[in-house]
Amino acid sequence: MRWTRIRAGLLGACCLAVVGIGSSGDAVEARHQDEPPGDRALGLFMQAKLDHAKDVLEGLTTGDFTRVVRGAQALRELTEDELWRVNPNINYVRYTEEFARLADALEAEGQSQDIDGATLNFVNLTINCVNCHTFVRDERVTLVDPDALIR
Ligand code: HEC
Description:
Layout: H1 2-19, H2 25-32, H3 37-62, H4 65-78, H5 90-111, H6 115-142, H7 146-150
The structure holds heme C (HEC).
Protein name: Cytochrome C
GO biological process, one term: electron transport chain
InterPro entries: Cyt_c/b562
């Protein structure tokens, strides 16, 4: 089941991000190489969120505001991509809007070198990541399986 794998991958990736190791691009490529091209593109696109979020964290911890601003802008731009809009559900749209708003705020705080505001918003953004992922997982669990109805 893809989500179990993604959940495990996510957990691992997040833990690694916290200790600052992070999975390399090659590892990500390898993880997706058996997937159909469409899924693979989506996986790599989604993975970019983690890369940019790590950039922001690195910028915050080293006081490199240029990195914070660049990471926030990159995160914001991802929301404009059609690959982001994989789910038409209103809750998904709301999480997306909140994500875009937080990324804009993070960019502005990076520009004005507001370390406290930017750090708080980075935490808010991370909560938004986790909430949207929980929502997407729950929705998968409650989706009706058409094959199950035929029996
Ligand atoms: C609006 C909802 C939403 C938000 C917000 C969100 N994600 Fe995701 N994320 C998804 C969806 C949908 C997938 C893909 C699920 C699938 O492959 O079926 C995904 C997949 C991923 C993956 C797995 C990629 C892979 O290798 O397959 C990572 C890593 C990830 N997201 C990181 C993040 C991070 C970090 C943030 C916050 C900075 C974030 N996401 C915010 C919806 C979201």
